[in-house]
Amino acid sequence: QVQPKESGGGLVQAGGSLTLSCVGEGRTIDEYTMAWFRQAPGKEREFVAAVKPSGDDTRYADSVKGRFTFSRDNAKNIVSLQMDSLRDEDTGVYYCAAHRRPLAIGQIEQAQYYAHWGHGTQVTVAS
Q1: Is the pLDDT of residue 56 over 90?
Q2: Is the confidence at residue 57, as pLDDT, over 90?
Q3: Which of 3, 32, 35, 93 could form a disulfide with 120 if both were Cys (CB 3.0 to 4.6 A apart)?
Q4: Closest CA to 17 of 26, 8, 6, 7
Q5: Do 23 and 78 contact (CB within 8 A), yes or no?
Q6: Which residues contact 111 (CB under 8 A, 6 or more apart)?
């Protein structure tokens, strides 16, 4: 089983950029759909972005389209989330998640379908 492990969170000014990374420990990620979710204080966990195992289909939440870029490097067993033009509402704990095999369009944005989760990394955007 793969164990996602996040890094790269921190404090950034609004309008700035931050890159999160997630390493798959224990197993190669090339068979896994990989995703990022986030949870703000007092709110439910929400979908941010996901990419299928092949890397040829990436999905983004409407709130981050055009600002965030999700990439994967199966050879290095790592996925990254480049976050630009950060806003206050991007503040939260960001979680990396994995599901073995591709997920359907109706499933890829739903946390319930991901069996493997990291512990999260805090992103704080200061205005």
Answers
A1: no
A2: no
A3: 93
A4: 8
A5: yes
A6: 37, 45, 47, 97
